[in-house]
Amino acid sequence: MTECLCRVTITDMEGGGHVIEVKASSLFEAVAHAIKTKAGSVATDGFRPIKVVVFEPKAEYEVKLKDFMAWLDRNSRSPREMMDRLKIREILGVKKMR
After folding, report:
1. Edge-to-edge strand list for the sheet holding 17-24
2. pTM value > 0.70
3. Where would you tag: which of 8, 16, 29, 97 has the fewest CB atoms within 10 A of its CB?
């Protein structure tokens, strides 16, 4: 996937919303950039599902943070998947989440 402009909305459990626009080449990369920028630290709870709107081609997604964290910790099945996980861990500044 080429880099696309995305609007990511992170909403905490009290209803406070954080919106950020990022360029990303995957759904989880957009989520990682938003977490890094707005949330400060990564926590597996305390957030409602994260909404990602891709501007072109127009699409909207919802990601549960626990699903994102589980994907990040999972073993890769292909070299591309391994590189995707490494890139996102680098964005977040972590080696392994758990």
Report:
1. 17-24, 4-11, 50-54, 59-63
2. yes
3. 16
